[in-house]
Amino acid sequence: MRKIRVLVANWPRLMRELVLATLADQPDVDVVGETDKESEIMDLVEQTRPDFVIIGLEDQERRPALCGFLLGRRPEIKILAVSPERNSTVCYWASVDIRSRPIETSEEGILGALRSGMEDRRVVMSDVR
User: Fold this and answer.
1) Checking phi first, is residue 49 left (phi over 0); if not, alpha (psi -120 to 50) or beta?
2) Per-residue DSSP letter, 106
3) Same domain, 32 and 63
4) SS3 for 45?
5) Strands across the sheet containing 52-56
6) What pTM does this model have?
7) In degrees to the nearest 10, what's the CA dihedral of 75, 45, 9, 80?
8) Are residues 83 and 125 in the same domain?
9) Does 66 lie in the same domain as 33?
10) Residue 29 phi, psi dihedral angles, 5° rounding
11) Which pLDDT tens digit goes with each residue over 47-102?
């Protein structure tokens, strides 16, 4: 059985220790790293390849900026953002939306699909900036 790999990050020491103590008793969970410095999280994610990153959640109405950054670089991970003050936890993840449309089987159809695909890509890339 493959263990769930978890990185615990971005917490005050006491909260991090409580989360670590909870996870320590779980036979199917492997804590692969921990840090209290947001600046170290991406390097630790790259080094440890966690399945989940657990972070603190300050405002449950807004997605932490860290989520967009991490999921943009590592869309395969999930992020648990925990707000102990509000007794609230949110899970963030990225997903791929696969779409399709029929294409005319001709030179014109294939070239049209290629060109419209590039236009779609330009729209997506301009949204990123």
Assistant:
1) left
2) S
3) yes
4) helix
5) 29-35, 4-9, 52-56, 78-83, 88-93
6) 0.72
7) 20
8) no
9) yes
10) -120, 135
11) 999 999 999 887 777 888 888 899 999 999 999 988 877 777 888 888 877 777 77
